[in-house]
Amino acid sequence: MHILVCVKRVPATGARITLTPDAQHIETRNLGFTVSPHEECAVEEAVRIAEAHGGETAVLTLGPAEAEEQLRSALAVGIDRAILLETDGEEWGPRATAAAIAAAIRQQEATGRPFDLLLFGNESADSGGYQVGVRVAHALDRPVITGVKALEIAGGLARAGREGPNGWEVYELPLPAAFTVKEGINLPRYPSVPGRLRAKKKTIEQLSPQRDGAGLRKLRLALPPEEHAEAISLGNGPEAAPKIVEVLRALELL
Amino acid sequence: MILTILEHDRGALDSAAPEALAIAQSIAQQTGSPLAAALVGGDEAVAAGLGAYGVQTVTLVAHDRLGSYIPEAWGCALALLVEKLQPEAVVAAGTDRGNELLAHIAARTGLPLAANVTAVQSGSPYRVTRVRWGGSLLEEAELDGSPALMTVALHTVEPAAAGASLSPAIESFTPELDERAFRVRLVEQAAAREQGVSLASAPVVVGGGRGVGSAEGFTLLEELAALLGGAVGGSRVVTNLGWRPHADQIGQTGTRIAPELYIACGISGAIQHMVGARGSKQILAINSDPDAPIMAKANYTVAGDLHEVLPALIAEIKKAKGL
């Protein structure tokens, strides 16, 4: 199995988001960076499939030079090699991102082995465009299934399970194929100390992608209005129980 | 023409469809274009019912191999319909399926797509407001492309009212699909695993976070939920620690809940959790830390250890119910 996982560097937001004064970005001065939980699971899934079937895994990201940190995190949990499509740090729209990833995959496959599996997160944590994986699959003429929460590989076929509107559904598709993964498909491991050390020493392949039209252009960000007024305190500790029951009655839940 | 792509099941329109129709109506009003709809796997009764939303033409996409949902085949069929009808905009609800179908249409046609919009201003380019971070941030953006492709963020717009008395023209469209559209096959479909009340539709949700302390600690939450006819959920911490299965996660990468009351126990209130609880009408937070972020986002707060508050509350509810 030759597997490629695509991830995106995003700020690790806590309890509150604040914006930069020009409303173009999240204020990240006091924030760390991470990837979406969906993508953490995609990385873990790639490592598990390679452990079970043998093969080589690669991680790819399109982003600023600092996104090397997210690539090294993936290397630390067992991904074999990493590719950075370095941008100037400006945000690329989903169409341009997908075009650059598809071009990089073509280039990788022209000089090496083709990827049997392309794994993505179902949607990025920050911009949430719900389309990059599907666009890359179409660009490379590969079948794709989104929202995957179970994946089995056997005999050149993949069986991908997911939650549909009417219950659990399983799709079968021939390899090579693309999948967008949802959190819950697995429980990602933590990197080991030797894993971290190995990841530190690895070389990261760098490519300079061409930006291909925007299509969806961010103008500015805004925080949604605060949803409700001051909270009503029902008291402290177990003494609050009768007051809670009053609220339940008022809401006609009791 | 403004084309809405609508989901339906066993003769009923999907519950999110009126939200897509609301945005489509707004664009139709702004542009003076007629409102149209497409349904894959046609049903004349559902089609006729769309007249109530002001839909003038309904296309039933009919094909003997589109009976079960195959994302790529449905997406290709709809992309062909879009090419045929040349609408000014294409709108679907921001459900998993709506986002998946529009992504296929966008990929197939090469058009830009704005997922999860909350407001739209027609023009060249279109101006859209869309949600980021699962709803905790808004983005204003320009959207190129003709047609303008978009999905509507769930639970963010007032659903369209079914008030008009229009009889839409019903047309049929049979796409010519090549074999490649059927590379993905649906091989198994199981009915939803019914385990009492589902998290997504429960009238009361009792959620637990790190403060619950252990998997066993959820027994108290389950007892409370059972007394109120509700469901139990948890934060991402809790599902990552394995105290609850991932299916119980409330949050950006888990389930979106919309109960009358969400009782959040020992949950700090990170934004990734709160976007999953946004649909809650009321939130009661029980937390030993009065400064936890959730205490400022709740309607009602109790400062205290859930291991003391919940037994007292359970006893009080039993008393009230005469149990």
Query: Could you tell me how far the N terminus lies from the C terminus of chain B, measured between alpha carbons in angstroms?
Result: 60 Å
Give the overall shape of chain A, derived from the CA principal axes.
Answer: globular
Give the ordered list of helices and strands of chain B.
EEEHEHEHEHEEEEEEEHEHEHEHEH
Number of domains of chain B: 2
CATH topology category name of chain A: Rossmann fold
Q: What do the pLDDT scores of chain B average to? A: 95
- CATH third-level topology of the largest domain in chain B: Rossmann fold
Q: Quickly count the domains of chain A.
A: 1
Total number of beta strands of chain A: 14
Number of DSSP E strands of chain B: 17
**Main β-sheet, spatial strand arrangement of chain B:** 9-8-7-10-6-1-4-5-11
Order of helices and strands of chain A: EEEHEHEHEHEEEEEHEEEH
CATH architecture of chain A: 3-Layer(aba) Sandwich
Look at the structure and give the CATH class of chain A.
Answer: Alpha Beta
Largest sheet of chain B: 9 strands, mixed
The number of helical segments of chain B is: 9
- The multimeric state of the shown protein is heterodimer
Percentage of residues in helical conformation of chain B = 25-40%
The average pLDDT value of chain A, as a whole number, equals 95
Task: Report Rg of chain A.
Answer: 21 Å
Largest interface, with counts of residues having CB < 8 Å to the other chain, equals: A-B, 84 and 101 residues
